[in-house]
Design brief:
Layout lengths: L1 E5 L3 H13 L6 E5 L4 H14 L5 E5 L5 H9 L6 E4 L4 E3 L1 H13 L3 E16 L2 E10 L9 H10 L10 E3 H8 L10 H20 L1 E14 L10 H6 L4 H13 L1
Length: 256
């Protein structure tokens, strides 16, 4: 099952579903809609309905939820053995999903698998997005035995959120996102970095080994609407407003 959170971008959902229809996707797609604008919620519902005859796509209204809480909620609805998280502006190739599933079926000591990722940089010129650069995303898989060793290597390497987008065994994916909604009690301004990125990234690393396969797996688009900047980790520790969520982060990792 492909899990796609989205917020106030109906045009992205339309392009995404057109892509999967052209690829003759047979896997399920779950759209988690956190749109703040009611008209966008309604538009997304209509788009999904239009594709339900040709795709196995389901719509979940998640208005008011942050992306982390949305993924926690939607992932608990998954009834397939494997799932993958995709941005509404990213594209995962169905044939590569099949290769990842086949690998995981044969290698029970791995929690996740993925392939090569290409980044397409877009810039809006005269009202239309145009490709300005294409690059290959470096691999981040860890095949070390032991959660602590994988976590240590991952953090020393500088981390990154790329491992959130692998094909996972569903229980491992669910565990990585479990508790995301609970963290909203720390306040939205402190929430994103930990609950929607750093904590699930670290938990995902600890779920088990990940394997990079030799296939084109995902195309990531980067554009004006996808840029974000997060403060360094040490700012989360020395800022009195952010320190409680850091303590939660620390305790959850220790428990894992």
């Amino acid at each position: 099952t492909i899990l796609v959170p989205t917020k106030d971008r109906p045009e992205f959902i339309l392009f995404l579903l057109k892509f999967y229809k052209s690829m003759k996707l047979r896997h399920g797609i779950f759209i988690g809609d956190t749109s703040a604008d009611r008209s966008n919620l309604e538009q997304n519902q209509g788009i999904v309905k239009d594709f339900q005859g040709s795709l196995n796509v389901r719509y979940f209204e998640c208005a008011g939820l942050h992306v982390g809480a949305c993924l926690e909620y939607v992932s608990e609805k998954v009834d397939t053995p494997y799932c993958v998280f995709s941005g509404d502006d990213d594209y995962v190739f169905p044939s590569s999903i099949d290769e990842c599933v086949e690998f995981l079926e044969k290698n029970h000591d791995y929690a996740a698998a993925y392939g090569k990722t290409v980044i397409v940089y877009l810039q809006e010129i005269n009202g239309r997005y145009q490709v300005i650069r294409i690059a290959k995303k470096p691999p981040t898989a860890s095949e070390e035995e032991g959660a602590y060793k994988r976590f240590s290597i991952f953090m020393k390497s500088g981390g990154g959120a790329g491992n959130l987008f692998y094909v996972y065994r569903t229980p491992a994916f669910q565990n990585a996102w479990r508790g995301a909604a609970e963290q909203e009690r720390f306040g939205r301004s402190n929430y994103f970095y930990f609950a929607s990125e750093l904590l699930p990234v670290c938990l995902a690393v600890m779920q088990g080994k990940a394997k990079e396969l030799d296939c084109l797996y995902r195309v990531v688009t980067t554009h004006g609407q996808s840029e974000k900047r997060v403060p360094p980790l040490y700012h989360q520790v020395d800022d009195i407003e952010r320190f409680p969520i850091y303590q939660y982060f620390e305790k959850r990792l220790a428990k894992e």
